[in-house]
Write a structure and sequence with these properties.
Blueprint (H helix, E strand, L loop, with lengths): L3 H13 L15 E6 L3 H13 L4 E7 L3 H15 L4 E3 L2 H5 L6 E4 L6 H10 L3 E4 L7 H14 L3 E3 L7 H11 L6 E9 L24 H5 L9 H5 L11 H17 L6 E7 L12 E8 L3 E8 L7 E7 L2 E6 L3 E6 L8 H4 L4 E4 H5 L5 H12 L9 H20 L3 E4 L4 E4 L1
Parallel strand pairs: 1-2, 1-4, 2-3, 4-5, 5-6, 7-10
Antiparallel strand pairs: 7-11, 8-9, 8-15, 9-10, 11-12, 12-13, 13-14, 15-16
Helix pairs in contact: 1-6, 2-3, 2-13, 5-6, 6-14, 7-10, 10-14
Length: about 425
């Protein structure tokens, strides 16, 4: 746990994060050279997303992964999308030693985030780090401290903050459109056919212990013999993942924090289990979490991998109206009617429906988030999700995981940066 001095530094740095962007040492007309660490499913797709976001400001010069099949695929994708042949690495530390690399994108399993991010900052690189910030609360504070000492730009991958749709929701809330907010309901529901279990990603037929660096994948996790299931389906196992809490829930508690200017909850209780997919997975496929904040505010969160009728969304319930953002694509506002007795000032607020693609030309916030990071490296903007914000988001996810695994209510002491159970 971080001590009181580290906690004060965390709060101080959170305030500084709102200051001017940090300026890169590169010349004004030079591109930012990017090294990519982790080119699995998301990492490989994001190679093209970055090209869509900032094609004229960056060059993708290196890729790194511990599976040779992913390296070969990413090398081909870079050639196709970017038109160049990147350097390739299995050991991320060798990529970090390349002085021509200015910044790295880290898109690896969460148990590797701390070691990779700290090493990148110590090597003088700017960092885009996928959420969650780290695999534990303690590791998250280590990243925050490394960032404080580095003077580098770090963006955490909670990309909803960069979505124009969510920014509009925040604007409407700040304008008082829904009055006082004390309750939010958030949910993420998924489903798949019986022969396609949740998070059971396809294992390449050619993957073997010989073409996969299993020891580098394990990092600081408990040592085990080669397991293609654990390597390619790592989200299912506590050694590498927080499951629903840190993969999905974090996005939603973070965006609630953003829309309502919150930080961390004071308590959490959680329940659930493996209800649908009975295999060797550790993490639940069903989870509910209840959060209480210090200022009479409550989040009711639920996730289930056995029905997707209601999809994904956040429902912000004010005493004068409701704002819903559904599936990252549709924003709805409706005023309270008070059973036909609403005051004229509330009754006059007309319903609103905005669509991400139709009204903003966006399917989600990823491109904006990538672009914001690159512009911050160039010194033109500040990042919207610095490590302090990423740590606040991660804390809520870890609280749900800890409450679920201990089957106890968890209490967060924000002043001390510590937790306890009751």
């Amino acid at each position: 746990m971080a001590d009181e001095v580290n906690r004060r530094n965390f709060l101080k740095t959170a305030a500084l994060a709102a200051g001017p962007a940090l300026i890169s040492a590169r010349g004004a007309n030079q591109k930012v050279n990017i090294g990519w660490i982790g080119v699995g499913t998301r990492g490989n797709a994001a190679i093209e997303w970055l090209h869509n976001a900032a094609p004229n400001d960056v060059a993708l010069t290196a890729v790194c992964d511990t599976y040779q099949g992913f390296i070969a695929r990413a090398k081909t994708r870079v050639k196709t999308v970017w038109g160049n042949e990147p350097a390739t690495y299995v050991d991320y530390r060798e990529l970090l030693a390349d002085r021509n690399v200015d910044a790295v994108f880290i898109m690896t399993p969460e148990h590797l985030h701390r070691d990779m991010a700290v090493a990148a900052l110590q090597a003088g690189k700017h960092v885009y780090l996928e959420k969650p910030l780290a695999h534990t609360i303690e590791e998250g504070f280590e990243i925050v401290r490394a960032w404080e000492q580095s003077g580098k730009v770090v963006q955490v991958g909670t990309q909803n903050r960069s979505s124009s749709l969510y920014r509009k929701a925040k604007e409407l809330i700040d304008q008082g459109m829904i009055g006082q907010v004390q309750y939010v309901r958030a949910f993420w529901y998924r489903n798949s056919l019986p022969n396609d279990p949740a998070w059971r990603y396809v294992i390449p037929a050619e993957a073997t212990a010989e073409n996969t660096d299993w020891d580098r994948f394990l990092g600081s996790a408990p040592k085990r013999s080669w397991s293609p299931e654990r390597y390619f389906q790592w989200r299912l196992y506590w050694d590498y993942s927080g499951g629903i809490s840190t993969d999905l829930l974090v996005h939603q508690t973070d965006i609630v924090n953003f829309m309502l200017s919150k930080t961390t909850p004071k308590t959490c209780v959680a329940s659930g289990g493996i209800y649908r997919w009975h295999d060797d997975r550790d993490v639940p496929d069903t989870l509910s979490a209840i959060y209480e904040y210090a200022d009479n505010f409550h989040i009711n969160y639920s996730c289930f991998f056995g029905n997707d009728h209601y999809g994904y969304g956040e429902q912000v319930c004010g005493n004068e109206g409701t704002i819903e953002v559904m599936n990252r694509q549709d924003l709805y506002f409706n005023a309270e009617t008070y059973h036909g007795k609403a005051p004229a000032s509330i009754a006059g607020r007309k319903p609103i429906h905005l669509n991400g693609k139709a009204d903003f030309g966006e399917s989600d916030g990823v491109n904006n988030h990538f672009r914001n990071f690159i512009q911050a490296v160039l010194g033109n903007e500040k990042v919207i999700a610095p490590p302090t914000v990423g740590q606040q988001a991660a804390i809520s996810g870890h609280m749900a995981t800890l409450a679920f695994r201990h089957q106890k209510k968890i209490i967060w002491d924000d002043a001390a940066g510590t937790y306890s159970f009751t």
